[in-house]
Amino acid sequence: MSHDLATKQSHLLQILGEMPGCVVAFSGGIDSTVVAKAAYLALGERAIAVTADSPSVARSELDEARRLAAEIGIRHEILSTDEFSNPDYLRNDGSRCFYCKDELYSRIEELLPRLGVTVICSGANLDDRGDYRPGLTAAAAHQVRHPLQEAGFTKADVRAVARAWGLPTWDKPASPCLSSRLAPGVPVTRERTARIEAAERLLWQLGLRECRVRLHEHELARLEVPPTEIARLALPEVRQLLVSQLREMGFRYVTLDLEGFRSGSMNELIPLTLKQKFEQVP
């Protein structure tokens, strides 16, 4: 580990250690896993991981969060959230993530007295500041702390520390919620998120570790896979399997994105006025 990274790691543990206790909003992704590990090292039993459970969370992600929390040793609670009852969330106009995080942090705040802590921490790192992140606006409204940002961690730093700590997900691809696969303007429904989960499971079974099934108007599925895998998915036997299976799931059209996988590609469809509304995060 480089001297610079070792310094950041020490700073992260110091930041968390100075808290009276904290709840980590724990998705099981690499960022929140590093924060949960650091919080447990710094605070022991005064650190608690809380994972949201809703139709936008893939069952595989929930299972992995349970396994990771057990491996770390941190106390872990599953919290049911109800963003699917919020018309602003379901409308999916590009601000969906704000209402999701607002629901999550509101529910966590309700737990704080019982848990005996007063601080909520997220897994946001410095790189998140350069992207469209309405969830950070919600976090600011709830006084959520971002220890990785405070300690100067980039995404690369997070992965390096995770690897040094022996966390099994140090190289895990990003896996945002299932609702993020719906194009702005396509309403979020439980049926659609379940269908997307099933479609991505099919791609995983074909050996694709990093992929997305994006859902556009008229139930059009746009498959994003690494550029090196595009030719394989276009092979007649694979193409026919995908079309058959996805149409059976309820997709009307199945397309393959020739640009390949790219994280956050749906942000290209967010109206500029909406981006400007959420770009100023305290």
Write up this protein:
By secondary structure, the chain is of the alpha/beta class. It is built from 12 helices and 7 strands. It has helices at residues 3-17, 30-43, 59-72, 87-91, 96-115, 134-141, 147-150, 155-164, 190-205, 230-233, 236-249, 272-278; strands at residues 22-25, 47-53, 75-80, 119-121, 212-216, 220-224, 253-256. The strands form 2 sheets. Strands 3-2-1-4 form a 4-stranded parallel sheet, with helices on both faces. It is globular, with a radius of gyration of 19 Å.
Principal-axis shape = globular
Task: Write down the CATH class of the largest domain.
Answer: Alpha Beta
Summarize the helix and strand pattern as letters: HEHEHEHHEHHHHEEHHEH
Q: Taking Cα atoms only, what radius of gyration do you get, to the nearest Å?
A: 19 Å
Please name the fourth-level CATH homologous superfamily of the largest domain. HUPs
The level of helicity is: 40-55%
What keywords describe this structure?
282 residues, alpha/beta, Rossmann fold, Alpha-Beta Plaits, 4-stranded parallel sheet, 3-stranded mixed sheet, 12 helices, 7 strands, 12% strand
Summarize the structure.
By secondary structure, the chain is an alpha/beta fold. Helices cover 46% and strands 12% of the residues. Helix 2 packs across helix 8 (155-164).
Fold blueprint:
Elements: H1 3-17, E1 22-25, H2 30-43, E2 47-53, H3 59-72, E3 75-80, H4 87-91, H5 96-115, E4 119-121, H6 134-141, H7 147-150, H8 155-164, H9 190-205, E5 212-216, E6 220-224, H10 230-233, H11 236-249, E7 253-256, H12 272-278
Helix pairs in contact: 1-2, 2-8, 5-6, 9-11
